[in-house]
């Protein structure tokens, strides 16, 4: 059971939804049962048949129904785990995009960017705690049952499975919830979320190897032969954890590179023209600027040097020389979106979040320092810089 937080972009596309069947909504997000869940339910039903038979003999073919009921009970607990993630994520200001029940359990996806270590800690820890609370509840009900019948057996198995799910998810490595907890703790100590992500990713790789070693080494220490089924399942889970940990490390490094992107570093320099200037004035300004004019943007400013628009060079080139003196520069300029201006020091995810919220779909936004326009930021350049990280 994991939570995932897609990275912000200047103009983020609609979140990609998992494929499957939508069975409801929680925290404003769809609850999706993926097609892979049906395979998981079938395999787990078969695997749990021996455990049910050993504790409730004499069921005959009904043991398969009992095993399937237990699987539904188990995935119901997984669903409550994801609900807890979703509710806390929404309470911490995130936009929950989906809750999915999958082959590997489930995940909760959200956007918005965790602003503080405490946010990540609370979103992550509540899932395993939900399973531990369920384990305690099922355990108390099991102890209170006066007879050992099938419902009691199911209660006991539910208690054990929830305790395992809760404890396993608290292991301190991404992509597990415990990994996000570790990420938040390192983030709080170092002040750098990226350091937490990379550290938790490497610990996640250790956990992945440990899962396989557990299946191989523990039987050897006990003087028995490793169970082939256990080894295969451990290898599959280990591979899943290794891949998730590797993705976390890559995302952490990418986020670190993104943090190095600033509005000042990405912006093109500007040549300023007052409102009412002509196309001829624009041409003269470029000629006077010499070589640096090629990389510069012509910006039209109003009263108080407020940036109003950016000149379209193609439109300027289309004005005949004889008409340049009579054509005002604002007729060949594209207005800036009001409120889209960016401080030059804005960088990293804060810059991307600002552009996503304030650019209004425009490609060009002004960079303004202490009321003076110092550059023009092209969102296409920002996107290229992100792809290069």
Automatic annotation (TrEMBL):
<keyword id="KW-1133">Transmembrane helix</keyword>
<keyword id="KW-0862">Zinc</keyword>
<keyword id="KW-0482">Metalloprotease</keyword>
<dbReference type="GO" id="GO:0046872">
    <property type="term" value="F:metal ion binding"/>
</dbReference>
<dbReference type="InterPro" id="IPR016483">
    <property type="entry name" value="UCP006404_Pept_M50_CBS"/>
</dbReference>
<feature type="transmembrane region" description="Helical">
    <location>
        <begin position="26"/>
        <end position="49"/>
    </location>
</feature>
<comment type="similarity">
    <text>Belongs to the peptidase M50B family.</text>
</comment>
<dbReference type="Pfam" id="PF02163">
    <property type="entry name" value="Peptidase_M50"/>
</dbReference>
<feature type="active site">
    <location>
        <position position="82"/>
    </location>
</feature>
<keyword id="KW-0812">Transmembrane</keyword>
<feature type="domain" description="Peptidase M50">
    <location>
        <begin position="153"/>
        <end position="202"/>
    </location>
</feature>
<feature type="binding site">
    <location>
        <position position="85"/>
    </location>
    <ligand>
        <name>Zn(2+)</name>
    </ligand>
</feature>
<dbReference type="InterPro" id="IPR046342">
    <property type="entry name" value="CBS_dom_sf"/>
</dbReference>
<feature type="binding site">
    <location>
        <position position="81"/>
    </location>
    <ligand>
        <name>Zn(2+)</name>
    </ligand>
</feature>
<keyword id="KW-0472">Membrane</keyword>
<dbReference type="GO" id="GO:0005886">
    <property type="term" value="C:plasma membrane"/>
</dbReference>
<keyword id="KW-0677">Repeat</keyword>
<keyword id="KW-0645">Protease</keyword>
<dbReference type="GO" id="GO:0006508">
    <property type="term" value="P:proteolysis"/>
</dbReference>
<protein>
    <recommendedName>
        <fullName>Zinc metalloprotease</fullName>
    </recommendedName>
</protein>
<feature type="transmembrane region" description="Helical">
    <location>
        <begin position="121"/>
        <end position="142"/>
    </location>
</feature>
<dbReference type="InterPro" id="IPR008915">
    <property type="entry name" value="Peptidase_M50"/>
</dbReference>
<feature type="transmembrane region" description="Helical">
    <location>
        <begin position="202"/>
        <end position="222"/>
    </location>
</feature>
<feature type="transmembrane region" description="Helical">
    <location>
        <begin position="61"/>
        <end position="80"/>
    </location>
</feature>
<keyword id="KW-1003">Cell membrane</keyword>
<feature type="transmembrane region" description="Helical">
    <location>
        <begin position="148"/>
        <end position="171"/>
    </location>
</feature>
<keyword id="KW-0479">Metal-binding</keyword>
<feature type="binding site">
    <location>
        <position position="177"/>
    </location>
    <ligand>
        <name>Zn(2+)</name>
    </ligand>
</feature>
<keyword id="KW-0129">CBS domain</keyword>
<dbReference type="GO" id="GO:0008237">
    <property type="term" value="F:metallopeptidase activity"/>
</dbReference>
<feature type="transmembrane region" description="Helical">
    <location>
        <begin position="228"/>
        <end position="249"/>
    </location>
</feature>
<keyword id="KW-0378">Hydrolase</keyword>
